[in-house]
UniProtKB/TrEMBL annotation:
Protein name as annotated: dTDP-4-dehydrorhamnose reductase
An example Gene Ontology molecular-function term: dTDP-4-dehydrorhamnose reductase activity
SUPFAM superfamilies in the cross-refs: NAD(P)-binding Rossmann-fold domains
Job of this protein: Catalyzes the reduction of dTDP-6-deoxy-L-lyxo-4-hexulose to yield dTDP-L-rhamnose.
Catalytic activity, as annotated: dTDP-beta-L-rhamnose + NADP(+) = dTDP-4-dehydro-beta-L-rhamnose + NADPH + H(+)
Length: 285
């Protein structure tokens, strides 16, 4: 679902590299009557709504309703439902890494609407995966955090980022690879349905992540002989008593499917190499 989402594009790239996986992409989040029967997929994957904490309440409600409509289609067609959700549903975080069995209990009304959807899935349809992700970063697609960051830095804009929130940035490519691996095992009879956490290793603040991006980008551009006047960073603080930690414990996905979390620094370096190669080609053209 949601063809333009950065996770959908990552799934498409990964599927194109494999001979055992075919991806059929739907433009939005709605299905026509009988569409699942016609396609007969092994699973229906719904990418996460990014930044639900700051999203318009109407957008959050629309997303929840669309997921619930997809649930009905999946039940009718007996197709497994894979719903990816943002770690922001853990609104207040936790001092220790958050285990999969911990159901989020946010105070925000919009976030609670998403919890209602999750509870509905758990109650009505055993063949589901609820996959909680850290903030996704990618080079293309909607909600591709890294693209927005690179564009802001390159254009000289000031980048404002919190330094008192701790989370695990998650590569969209790594998440796509893990999801396909999980679904392949489910198709082979793993029968390991339920909630799982997928996130990168090394918890970090948005400010530190942006700082690493800026430093590595400057280094690469200098290596290409390009003088870069990148935008500055400004640290924001919202939690003055102690940092808000939103770190996902990804132990269950390792135990059930053997999925290891990829270090975000390695994924970031790979993506920046790709971005700089494209930048150089564009400059030469």
């Amino acid at each position: 679902m949601d063809a333009g989402h950065c996770l959908s594009l990552a799934l498409a790239r990964e599927a194109n590299l494999r001979g055992d996986t075919e991806l059929v992409i739907v433009e939005g989040l709605s299905l026509a009557s009988g569409q699942l029967e016609d396609v007969a997929p092994d699973a229906l994957v719904i990418p996460p709504l990014a930044q639900p904490i700051s999203a318009d309440p109407a957008a959050v409600t629309a997303h929840a309703e669309a997921v619930e409509a997809c649930l009905e289609h999946c039940q009718h067609s007996e197709v497994p439902l894979i719903w990816c959700v943002s770690d922001q549903l853990y609104e207040d975080g936790a001092e220790t890494p958050i285990d999969e069995h911990v159901v989020p209990a946010p105070r925000d009304e919009s976030l609670r609407r998403l919890i209602v959807t999750g509870n509905l899935i758990r109650e009505r349809y055993p063949r589901h995966l609820i996959v909680r992700l850290g903030p996704l970063f990618a080079l293309a697609g909607a909600d591709a955090w890294l693209t927005e960051l690179l564009e802001s830095l390159q254009s000289g804009q000031e980048v404002r980022a919190a330094e008192d929130i701790i989370f695990c940035p998650t590569s969209a490519d790594a998440a796509a690879l893990a999801l396909i691996g999980m679904l392949q095992q489910q198709g082979c009879g793993a029968n390991a349905w339920g909630a799982y956490h997928l996130a990168g290793t090394e918890p970090v603040s948005p400010y530190t992540f942006a700082s690493v991006v800026r430093t590595q980008l400057a280094t690469r551009l200098e290596g290409l002989g390009k003088r870069a006047e990148l935008g500055d960073l400004k640290a924001l603080n919202h939690h003055h008593d102690q940092p808000l930690r939103r770190v996902l414990n990804c132990r269950r996905v390792l135990e059930a499917f053997g999925v290891h979390q990829k270090p975000w620094r390695l994924e970031l370096g790979r993506m920046l190499d790709t971005w700089c190669q494209a930048y150089q080609v564009e400059e030469e053209a």
